[in-house]
Every structure is written in structure tokens, then in C-alpha cells.
Amino acid sequence: MPSAWALASARPPGAGPAERSGKSVVSSVTLPYQDVLLIILALYVLLVFLLMIALMMQKN
């Protein structure tokens, strides 16, 4: 673990290809329909969570 922290701290930010590709991916993904998909996914997860709670209540 300390060696990984030392490597991460020794490397300057944005130097590696991973950081550059990550920034380009983030800038290309910032589209309005991504927010809609995120909201739909959050609502779906909430619905599944509420259904699980309802099933637990019915078992009791």
C-alpha cells in the first residue's frame, strides 16, 4: 500500500495516458441524455428497493 501511494504521489497529475483518456471520456459523456438515463436508473433502483421492503413487510 505505501508503495502504491508513493507511486501515485510521485507521478504528476495528468501525466499518464489514463488521466488524459479519462478527461476526454468525461468531456464526451457530458450529454443531456446521460442525465436522463442516470435519473431513470436511480428511480429504478429506488423502485426495486421499495419493492424489497414491501416484500419484507409482507413476510412479517
Structural account:
The relative contact order is 0.06. The model has no long low-confidence stretch (mean pLDDT 71). The protein has a domain of 30 residues. The chain has three helices and no strands. 83% of the residues lie in helices and 0% in strands. With 60 residues, it is an all-alpha fold.
Briefly say what this structure is.
By secondary structure, the chain is mostly helical. It has helices at residues 2-10, 17-29, 32-59. The mean pLDDT is 71.
How would the blueprint of this fold be written?
Elements: H1 2-10, H2 17-29, H3 32-59
**Whole-number average pLDDT?**
71
Q: From the helix content, strand content and strand pairing, which structural class follows? A: mainly alpha
- The helix content, as a percent range, equals over 70%
Number of strands: 0
Portion in beta strands: under 5%
**What composes the largest sheet?**
none
Instruction: Determine the number of helices (DSSP H or I, runs of at least 4 residues).
Output: 3
Low-confidence stretches: none
Q: How far is it from the N-terminal to the C-terminal residue, by CA?
A: 46 Å
What is the H/E string? HHH
Apparent shape = rod-shaped
Over all CA atoms, what is the radius of gyration? 21 Å
